Amino acid sequence: TLRSVLTEEETFAVLQNISFSNSFVAASLWCFEEMTMAAATFAKRLIGSRSTSTTATSVARAFCSTTTPITATMFPGDGIGPEIAESVKQVFTTAGVPINWEEHYVSAEIDPRTQSFLTWESLESVRRNKVGLKGPMATPIGKGHRSLNLTLRKELNLYANVRPCYSLPGYKTRYDDVNLITIRENTEGEYSGLEHQVVRGVVESLKIITRQASLRVAEYAFHYAKTHGRERVSAIHKANIMQKTDGLFLKCCREVAEKYPEITYEEVVIDNCCMMLVKNPALFDVLVMPNLYGDIISDLCAGLVGGLGLTPSCNIGEDGVALAEAVHGSAPDIAGKNLANPTALLLSGVMMLRHLKLNEQAEQIHSAIINTIAEGKYRTADLGGSSTTTDFTKAILTHSSIFLPSSMKSFSPKEKLVTAFMGGFTSQLVKEISIEECVKEAGCYASNVVLQRFGCI
Amino acid sequence: MLWCDMEASLNLLNLGLGRMVITKFCSERIAKYAFEYAYLNNRKKVTAVHKANIMKLADGLFLESCREVAKKYPGITYNEIIVDNCCMQLVAKPEQFDVMVTPNLYGNLVANTAAGIAGGTGVMPGGNVGADHAVFEQGASAGNVGKDSIVRKNKANPVALLLSSAMMLRHLQFPSFADRLETAVKRVISEGKCRTKDLGGQSTTQEVVDAVIAKLE
Question: Which long-range contacts (CB under 8 A, 24 or more apart) does A386-392 make?
Fold first, then answer.
């Protein structure tokens, strides 16, 4: 901590040189008692209070997490990857998520053990940690190696790709009531990669559907529906034409459906599904499909809610492995310019947290993101705004750092606000400061949404 | 690409096997039709929809054929788009597409998605063209096809088939009749007074047909 290195005076000097909003963010980021006390004392100095005692202990503790830290792998990726990964790390730390990140990068040479640019160590890391977050990776153009995504999928046996698609309040598209999950079988089907030329000018591509893979993904789909309180699972197919392949897929889905009588099961032909999605997406709840249809439908649904820049995604593997990823590209044209939209990676991180059952923090970060976008004041270029990545992240940090733990739920609105923005507080401080002053001191990122949450307006 | 017309079910191994075939002959044929259609109907752009990043050989062959044909039509812009991106773009910005040429499976999905955006199965015309014959029918196959209840209640939308028959007239080289029919249908829809249930109105099939006849000049 700074405290151990600097004296109290020097700490204050450091804090005074950065704007107060940053000092609060700094305080909660490190969530150490000394820092919040320093921030509180600083605040008192601003207001000229003569009280010198501070009781930040219990308050500071409330911002710290006391659970054992979980190690998770992070692949920042290429292009805009490192910037948005930085965003994610900051938001997670502010929210007190007990995760230690193990970062791995794609190397410049092919690792012979994996036949790709991903090293054996990175794959081992995911296998060990069972959970990871991946940014966009560009597959280098060339021959003789597998694509990076394919390598991850095959090596980690990631069999299901889960993408929740819901309309974001505040970001208007033609469809407001989308609330569906697409679960796509990720290992076989049309993408088995088995193609050959029969004679010149005739190419054959094999589509393989196995009972094992279909059962696996159907099981996951129904399990997901049950644990997330979803009511209906729809299997998407073209079994009227592809009787043997999609027929097998449907048979497996029906078998699993029998085990979950409380969930409605239906089968929808893919062309019907496309039409219904485009006319009335509210008709769907959970969709489960083989590989090719899943690819197309999940991107179609992403388009319904605003594009790949806002879509989270999580790949589920055997033994409970979960690799959340941002599905957009690496956008090399805006890399390094602080213009990227971190929403997709952040929402994927939230999916990862829910998988880890850290629901309180997941909810906190999720609300922060939704509120920031709903507010509309800070939006990156792809959503029609002009904020930078760092501005957008700071707005989310502010929204997420003022989530009050349940121990503070009995505080009055003003106490909550002062606590949130000033760190530690004394009753003297609460009496002397007005809400406007507090908000003003907290910096420009306080907003009506925030004040409304605290019941101050 | 043929719809997996050769399938095997190896029940012992619980495996379903499907084969997708793409031939240069068929790909060239459809590409030629697409560009010729664009040329004759004054269309500016032809987009090939594919998944060649994954199905390198199969869709690669399709794309190769399209590119070869594209060279012969320098006045028409040609571009390529991957099918999942295509669906996303269709949903977000359908106006960027003009003529789209696709293999069999993707074409089914893209046609139905586009139909949904344009108003549904009830309004989209279509036709099947061969070397010796042509059959015209509704463009999108999803939804209310074959539902007796709709026929009984007289709620079926005749617009799609009327527009398909206009396409047939055009194919038979009767452009003036085709134009008259199309204009009448479009006027009836744009007026909004006679619409069947799928377009949000209350009229019966017969009422719509009568309105179209009335508008025929």
Answer: A388/A338, A388/A339, A389/A83, A389/A84, A389/A87, A389/A338, A389/A339, A389/A340, A389/A341, A389/A342, A390/A338, A392/A87, A392/A341, A392/A342
Residues of chain B positioned with their CB less than 8 A from the CB of A299: 84-85, 87-88
Contacts of A184 in chain B (CB under 8 A): none
Contact across the interface for A204 and B142, Cβ inside 8 Å? no
Nearby residues of B1 by Cβ (< 8 Å), 6 or more positions away: B20, B21, B22, B26, B58, B62, B103, B104, B105
Contact A350, A400 (CB under 8 A): no
* Interface contact B76, partner A, CB < 8 A: no
- Beta bridge partners, A161, equal A184, A315
Separation of alpha carbons A315 and A153, rounded Å? 8
Nearest to B19 among A206, A248, A298 (CB): A206
Q: Which residue has the higher pLDDT, A20 or A453?
A: A453
Q: How far is B109 from chain A (nearest CA, A)?
A: 6
Angle formed by the axes of helices A33-47 and A413-422, to 10°?
110
Give the mutation candidate from B2, B104, B109 for the A interface (greatest A CB count, under 10 A).
B109
Count of other CB atoms within 10 angstroms of residue A137: 25
Q: Give just the sign of the alpha carbon dihedral A429, A434, A440, A445.
A: positive
Residues in chain A closer than 8 A to B61 (CB atoms): 201, 203
Question: Which residues on A lie below 8 Å from B24 (Cβ)?
Answer: 200-202
When the pLDDT of each residue in chain B is averaged and rounded to a whole number, the result is: 87
pLDDT at B8: 55
Reply yes or no on whether the pLDDT at A1 is more than 90. no
Mean pLDDT of chain A: 77
Cβ–Cβ under 8 Å, residues A345 and A308? no
> Cα(A208)–Cα(B140) distance, rounded to whole angstroms?
28
**What's the pLDDT at A5?**
44
Cα dist from A26 to A4, A56, A96, A198, B72, whole Å: 16, 15, 13, 64, 64
Parallel/antiparallel/unpaired status of strands A202-210 and A232-237: unpaired
What is the 8-class DSSP label of residue A335?
T
Residue B13: pLDDT above 50?
yes
A60 versus A163: which is more confidently predicted?
A163
ipTM: 0.87
**Average pLDDT of span A283-291:** 94
In the predicted structure, residue B179 carries a pLDDT above the cut 80: yes
Listed in order, strand segments (DSSP E) in A349-391 are: none
Q: What is the mean pLDDT of residues A118-142?
A: 84
Amino acid sitting at position A170: G
The model's pTM is 0.78
pLDDT at A445: 44
pLDDT at A452: 60
Tokens describing residue A124: 């081992």
Q: CB distance B87–A190 less than 8 Å?
A: no
Q: Which of A197, A211, A245 sits opposite B57 (nearest CB)?
A: A197
Residue from the list B83, B90, B109 with its beta carbon closest to the beta carbon of A271: B109
Q: How many CB pairs under 8 A join A and B?
A: 164
Does B140 reach chain A within 8 Å, measured CB to CB?
Answer: yes
Element (H, E) at A256: helix A245-259
Cross-chain residue pair B17–A245, CB shorter than 8 Å:
yes
The CA-atom distances, in angstroms, between A30 and each of A3, A18, A125, A350 are 12, 16, 26, 21
Answer whether residue B134 shows pLDDT above 80.
yes
Touching check for B90 and chain A: CB below 8 Å? yes
Closest in A201, A206, A304 to B91, CB measured: A304
